[in-house]
Amino acid sequence: QVHLVESGGGLVQAGGALRLSCAASGRTVNRYAMGWFRQAPGKEREFVAAISWSGGATTYADSVKGRFTISRDNAKTTVYLQMNSLKPEDTAVYSCAADLWGNGAPSAISYDAWGQGTQVTVSS
C-alpha cells in the first residue's frame, strides 16, 4: 500500500506563490512516477504536473507551464509542487497521486494511489 499526504495549501492573493508537499510512505515509493492533479468546484479533475521516478522527466499542463514546478526528493520520499504567479483560476483542491506501473501519464486513470488533497484558494 502507498499512503500519500498533501500539505502546504492555503489562501493567497493573485500573483503570489505556494509550495505544496506530498509525503509518501509504504512500498518503495521513490521508485514510482508521481503526479499532481486538481479539481475545482463543479469541474472535473484535471492534470497539473507529473514527474518520473528519477526526477529526470517532467510534464506539465499548458495552463501551468512556466509557472509551476514539480520536483521530488527521493531520500525524503516527498514530491513538491512550487506554484508561482498564482491566478484565481488556480483555485482548487490539489491532490498528489502515485503511478505504480507507468511513467506518470497526464491522465488520472493511470494513477493507483491518491492523497486526500489540500485546498488552494487564490483571491483576486
Q: Tally of extended strands?
A: 11
- Report the radius of gyration as a whole number of Å: 13 Å
Oligomer: single chain
- SS content category: mainly beta
Distance between the termini: 40 Å
User: How would a textbook summarize the main sheet?
Assistant: 7 strands, mixed
> Approximately what portion of the residues adopt beta-strand conformation?
over 45%
Average pLDDT confidence is 94
Q: What is the tally of helical segments? A: 0
Overall 3D geometry? globular
Percent in helix: under 10%
Q: Order of helices and strands, N to C?
A: EEEEEEEEEEE
Unreliable segments of 5+ consecutive residues: none
Summarize the structure.
It contains no helices and eleven strands. Helix content is 0%, strand content 49%. The strands form two sheets. Strands 2, 4, 5, 6, 9, 10 and 11 form a seven-stranded mixed beta sheet that branches. Strands 1-3-8-7 form a four-stranded antiparallel beta sheet, with no helix packed on it.
